[in-house]
Amino acid sequence: MEFIKVTKDHAPYIALIELNRPKELNALNLQLMGELRDALKELDNDDNVRVIILTGNERAFAAGADIKQMAGKGTIDMWKVDQFSTWDQINKTRKPIIAAVSGFALGGGCELAMTCDMIVASETAQFGQPEIKIGVMPGAGGTQRLTKALGKAKAMELVLTGKFIDAEEALRYKLVNKIVPVELYLEEATKLASEIAAMSPIAVQMAKESVKRSFEVHLEEGLHFERKNFYMLFASEDQKEGMNAFVEKRKPDFKGR
Ligand code: CAA
């Protein structure tokens, strides 16, 4: 891997992926996105990993798709490369992904953070979809996910003007879970990841799947989907362990079976 760094034992059951193109503010070129897709696929199949943290560095989570790589391209080039198919694969990751964001999360960087399940932001984080300033528009989910997170008026403002919002505003609009001082954002993301990693990984993945489904279907179908996953969990040893531990007044030890 040239543009990302993967640490599988960042903390018990937690893998860390660091975007690693610091000079380019982690601009998301095709190779980086391919590496990210492959790493997530591998981690999704690794029983020793229950939660994934995705981060950049203090200055930038990611400043967007690589403009230099796209600048000379035509429609057919873009269609052939089909860069967003990589994103579809990332979106299919079953395990929870927490974005630990400091500095710029712009364009594709903001979209990548929003593709994750939760965002822990440093107080220096800045979010935005500035594609309009370079003659295009968001292409990796920005118009959809930002609108669902912020509501129409604010999303429209950001997408049409390209202006950024800071961490405080992002929290107010419920785009991020929490803000912490810059020296603590990774630690805080790890704390959140550890809490989730202590749960049954099967229940966690089915719960994630169900919450995500609520963005795609109407209520009745979502409730039906949720109910099926709920019943399905009664086939797991973790359900017996969790409920028995409650009755026996002890801490459960979930095995992911
Ligand atoms: N693509 C390629 N290179 C980028 C980049 C990007 N998205 N963002 C920053 N860089 C590069 C700069 O070109 C610069 O490289 P050089 O030193 O070789 O010139 C280096 O990173 C540092 O950047 P700056 O000197 O510009 O740093 P700054 O602190 O002055 O400004 C910034 C920071 C405001 C983030 C500014 O870099 C910027 O506006 N970047 C582009 C943001 C953007 O438009 N993102 C959307 C991209 S399109 C997209 O993402 C489409 C989609 O939906 C998937």
Automatic annotation (TrEMBL):
Name the record gives this protein: Enoyl-CoA hydratase
PANTHER family: ENOYL-COA HYDRATASE, MITOCHONDRIAL, ENOYL-COA HYDRATASE-RELATED
Gene name in the database record: fadB
PROSITE patterns hit by this protein: ENOYL_COA_HYDRATASE (PS00166)
A family per Pfam: ECH_1
SUPFAM superfamilies, per the entry: ClpP/crotonase
InterPro entries referenced in this protein's UniProt entry, alphabetically: ClpP/crotonase-like_dom_sf, Enoyl-CoA_hyd/isom_CS, Enoyl-CoA_hydra/iso, Enoyl-CoA_hydra_C
Family: Belongs to the enoyl-CoA hydratase/isomerase family.
Keywords: Lyase
